[in-house]
Amino acid sequence: MRFVVKVKPGVKIARIKVQDKSLFTIYVTEPAREGKANRAIIKALASYFQVASSRVIIVSGVGAREKIIEIN
Q1: Number of CB atoms found within 10 A of residue 42's CB
Q2: Where are any strands of DSSP class E within 1-72?
Q3: Distance between CA atoms of 47 and 41, rounded to whole angstroms?
Q4: What's the topology of domain 2-71?
């Protein structure tokens, strides 16, 4: 399954907002530095979909605020 994620790093409260089946907005408390926000996104999505973190892959947009995510 692939979908688009818009990321808002450095917020006070972490949460996931579902826009529709293929678009999520993820708010993470970690800053967008040194991959911290990306790791937080993977962890949040793995928890949301109840899968292992290793099954969540950032396909494109590693350095961008809009990413394509794949869950195997």
Answers
A1: 18
A2: 2-9, 15-20, 23-28, 56-60, 66-71
A3: 10
A4: Conserved Hypothetical Protein Mth637; Chain: A; (3.30.1200)
